[in-house]
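Handout, page 2. Input:
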Amino acid sequence: MSLNLADLDAALYTRLSTDVTLIALVQDVGGNPAIYGGAGDPNTKRGDGVLPWVVFEYAEYEQDDTFTENIATATYEVVVYDAHENGNAPARAVLDQIFALLHRWTPTLAGANTASTVRRLRGRTAHDLDVWSYVETYEVLVTEG
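Output:
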């Protein structure tokens, strides 16, 4: 089975980048959503000095076929970066909105593959002196059509 990550990336990016509440929480200097990854902008313009901002990225893929179906588990990490002097309230608001958008949401994929409902697996933090990173891990199963 070949998992079409581009379709899943596009569905996740669209879900995050078109939500007006999330956009209001994370904007770059041009007023655009500061959401990067997948079908968005994974390699450039990340964090143009405006915090908080969001990056989501494919973290892991595991083939888990049954006797009758080809199934894969895709794991994504959504990372919210924020300045430590902002405290954790702005990042918490972003994380709460992302949870509301992704947890128990079922992406629609192009083609014959289907996706399960997304679920949040865990959260963790990775801070340095200037920037705090909040990492949420989400999982979705994809069945080959």
